[in-house]
C-alpha cells in the first residue's frame, strides 16, 4: 500500500548536495522529504569496515580551498587530521625504474622536467581566464571544447613524457577518462575548479587533510539532524510535474510537493520516468554527460613499512597500472594503509581478469613503488563504484567533446518546478564534496526564493 506525504520540497538523493539543500530549507521553515534509493546516506561518500579495517570507500580528502566543506565540518564539529607526507615521493618513468624525489616535478631528464614546468605555466595562464561557474563564456570556449586534451598537449609539446605526466593530473587522477575522450575546455574547468592547474599538481594541497572517522561523517550528521524526513530504500521511479508542483512516487511512497530537487549523478537522471517528459534540450544535455571509471585500491599492512625507508607514501607514474598512490593510514592506527588508483582504459583491462589475477597485478604495481613488502597486505579491498547500481562510475560526470560549450549554460536551469544538482554540476569544487555542498546551498536558496515569490504572488 502506498503512503502519501506532503511537503514543500521533495529531494531525490541523500548525498551531500541533497542533504545540504534539505538542511537549509528546513532552517528556512520549509517542509522537506528526502528520498534515497540506497540503504544508507552519503551517495559517493561511504566509510565501511572491511575485515576489521576502516576504509573510506569513496571521497575522503579536504583541501584548503574547499571553504564550503571546511565551514560544514566546523559547523558539525567534525575534526580533521593531516595526510602523512614526510619523506620522499616515488616516480616510475618510461624505463620502469623507481626514482625518489621531493617537490612537485617528477624526476626525468632535465629537458622533460623543464617542459613539464613550462606546460604548467601555460595551463595556469589559461586556467586563470576561465570562470569555473561559466567556462562556456571563455572567448575561445568553442575552439577549446572541440579539441581533445591529448591533441591540445600534442600541439603544445613534442616531449611525450612531459605530455603523459601533465595528462595524468587531469585524465587519470581527476576525470578518470582517457585524455582523448574529453576536451581541453573540460580540462581547464577541472583545474579552475581547484583554483589552478598548479593546485592539482601539488598533492600536499589537493590531498591535504582527512576527517577523523571518515568524510561520510558529513552526510551522516546532516541526515541525523533531519531525522525522519530522510527515507531510505526509496528509489523514485516516477516524477510527475506541472506548474502546480510535483509528485514523486516510489514503491511505497507518494510525495506531493511544490518543488523537487534531483540530487543524483547525471547518468542516473534517466532512471526516473518524468511525466510529462523533460524538454528536448534537457534530454540531449543529459546524454552528453558521462562518468569515468576508476578502481580505488586499499591495502593495509601491519606497519607503514614505507616510512622506515624514508618514503612519504606518495607515488606517481603514467606508465604503471596504479598511476598514483598515497599513505592513507587512519588517524590513531598503528597499521599502515596505502591507497592507489587504477583508471580508465587500464581499469578496463584488469576488470576483464579474474579477481585474483587483478589483485596480483595491482599489488605488483604497488611493489614497483614501495618494494616487495607491498605484495602482502593484511587487508586488501577494491572500491568499484561502476558496479554500484546507484552510481555506475567515478568520480563525477564530464561532457564529451563539444558538450560543455554546447550545453553547459543550461545545466543549472530549472525545468518547471524541478531543479537538478550535484557535485557533477559544480563550478568551484567540481566533482568534490565541497562542490556538492556549494550546489546544495545554492539550490536550497533558489528554491526558498521561488517558494517565497509564489507565496507573495498568491497572497
Automatic annotation (TrEMBL):
| Every Amine oxidase domain range | 17-443
- Tell me which Pfam families the record gives: Amino_oxidase (PF01593)
Where along the chain is FAD bound?
Answer: 17, 36-37, 236
Q: Which UniProt keywords apply?
A: Oxidoreductase
Per its UniProt record, the required cofactor names are: FAD
Residue spans making up a coiled coil are: none
What GO molecular functions are on record for this protein?
Answer: oxidoreductase activity
The family line of this record is: Belongs to the flavin monoamine oxidase family.
- Annotated protein name in UniProt: Putrescine oxidase
In this chain, substrate is annotated as bound at: 341
- Per its UniProt record, what SUPFAM superfamilies does this chain match? FAD-linked reductases, C-terminal domain, FAD/NAD(P)-binding domain
Organism field: Frondihabitans australicus
Q: Mind telling me which InterPro entries this protein's record contains?
A: Amino_oxidase (IPR002937), FAD/NAD-bd_sf (IPR036188), Flavin_amine_oxidase (IPR001613), Flavin_MAO (IPR050703)
Amino acid at each position: 500500500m502506498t503512503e502519501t506525504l506532503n511537503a514543500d520540497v521533495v529531494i531525490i538523493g541523500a548525498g551531500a548536495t541533497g542533504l545540504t539543500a534539505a538542511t537549509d530549507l528546513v532552517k528556512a521553515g520549509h517542509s522537506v522529504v528526502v528520498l534515497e534509493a540506497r540503504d544508507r546516506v552519503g551517495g559517493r561518500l561511504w566509510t565501511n569496515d572491511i575485515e576489521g579495517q576502516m576504509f573510506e570507500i569513496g571521497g575522503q580528502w579536504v583541501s584548503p580551498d574547499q571553504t564550503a566543506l571546511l565551514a560544514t565540518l566546523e559547523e558539525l564539529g567534525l575534526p580533521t587530521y593531516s595526510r602523512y607526507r614526510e619523506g620522499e615521493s616515488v616516480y616510475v618513468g618510461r624505463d620502469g625504474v623507481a626514482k625518489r624525489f621531493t617537490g612537485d616535478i617528477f624526476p626525468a631528464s632535465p629537458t622533460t622536467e623543464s617542459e613539464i614546468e613550462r606546460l604548467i605555466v601555460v595551463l595556469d595562464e589559461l586556467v586563470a581566464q576561465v570562470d569555473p561557474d561559466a567556462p562556456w563564456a571563455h572567448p575561445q570556449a568553442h575552439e577549446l571544447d572541440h579539441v581533445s586534451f591529448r591533441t591540445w598537449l600534442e600541439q603544445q609539446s613534442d616531449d611525450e613524457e612531459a605530455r603523459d605526466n601533465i595528462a595524468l593530473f587531469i585524465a587519470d587522477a581527476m576525470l578518470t577518462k582517457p585524455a582523448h575522450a574529453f576536451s581541453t575546455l573540460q580540462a581547464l574547468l577541472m583545474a579552475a575548479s581547484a583554483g589552478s592547474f598548479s593546485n592539482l599538481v601539488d598533492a600536499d594541497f589537493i590531498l591535504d587533510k582527512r576527517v577523523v572517522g571518515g568524510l561520510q561523517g558529513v552526510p551522516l550528521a546532516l541526515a541525523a539532524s533531519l531525522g525522519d524526513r530522510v527515507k531510505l530504500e526509496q528509489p523514485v521511479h516516477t516524477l510527475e510535474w506541472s506548474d502546480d508542483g510535483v509528485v514523486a512516487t516510489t514503491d511505497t511512497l507518494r510525495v506531493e510537493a511544490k518543488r523537487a530537487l534531483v540530487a543524483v549523478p547525471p547518468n542516473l537522471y534517466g532512471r526516473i520516468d518524468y511525466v510529462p517528459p523533460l524538454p528536448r534540450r534537457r534530454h540531449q544535455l543529459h546524454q552528453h554527460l558521462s562518468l569515468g571509471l576508476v578502481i580505488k585500491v586499499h591495502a593495509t599492512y601491519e606497519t607503514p613499512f614505507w616510512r622506515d625507508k624514508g618514503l612519504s607514501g606518495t607515488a606517481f607514474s603514467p606508465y604503471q597500472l596504479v598511476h598514483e598512490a598515497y599513505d592513507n593510514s587512519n588517524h590513531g592506527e598503528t597499521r599502515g594503509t596505502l591507497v592507489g588508483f587504477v583508471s580508465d582504459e587500464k581499469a578496463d583491462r584488469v576488470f576483464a581478469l579474474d579477481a585474483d589475477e587483478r589483485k596480483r597485478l595491482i599489488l605488483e604495481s604497488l611493489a614497483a613503488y614501495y618494494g616487495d613488502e607491498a605484495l602482502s597486505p593484511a587487508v586488501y579491498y577494491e572500491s568499484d563504484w561502476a558496479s554500484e547500481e546507484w552510481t555506475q562510475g567515478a568520480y563525477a560526470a564530464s561532457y564529451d567533446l563539444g558538450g560543455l560549450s554546447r550545453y553547459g549554460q543550461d545545466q543549472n536551469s530549472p525545468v518547471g518546478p524541478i531543479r537538478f544538482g550535484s557535485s557533477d554540476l559544480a563550478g568551484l569544487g567540481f566533482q568534490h564534496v565541497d562542490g556538492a555542498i556549494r550546489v546544495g546551498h545554492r539550490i536550497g536558496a533558489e528554491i526558498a526564493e521561488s517558494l517565497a515569490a509564489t507565496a507573495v504572488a498568491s497572497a
